[in-house]
Task: structure prediction
Amino acid sequence: MKDATIDYVLRTTWLAVTKMYNEEASKFDSTMATGFALLSIDPENGTPSTSLGPKMGMEATSLSRTLKNMEERGLIERKPNPEDGRGVLIFLTEFGREKRNYSKEKVLTFNETIKANVATEELESFYKVAEIINNMISNKKIYNKKEHTLK
Result:
């Protein structure tokens, strides 16, 4: 593993996490995407549908499919946004709140288990490196348009 690239470690770790969450969610006829959507919806005030995609890092078409499935399963309901007539707010149903609590419990269990097995300093370093990577990507410090312009 010493020859692995940073992106390889990130990718394979995320795939392992995804697989773990999907295996757990499948026990309850659900998916990781549904669980993360439940956690991303404000349980009191609802959430504008347009803010869910960026919040979850999900493309609009995938999010639409997930929300449609969630609505069919009775986890969410859509209501017009009173502050924006064109917008829609997504609210959790009572069943959705129950499933949200279950998803929250699974995420907290994952986090607490990692924290119990990784030194605080190592976790702080992990968060710092992840923040640096995200900032470099956001600020286009790895690949910039000038470098890749065709002549």
In short: Helices lie at 6-26, 32-40, 49-56, 60-72, 94-117, 120-138. DSSP finds six helices and three strands in the chain. The chain has a mean pLDDT of 91. The longest strand covers residues 84-92.
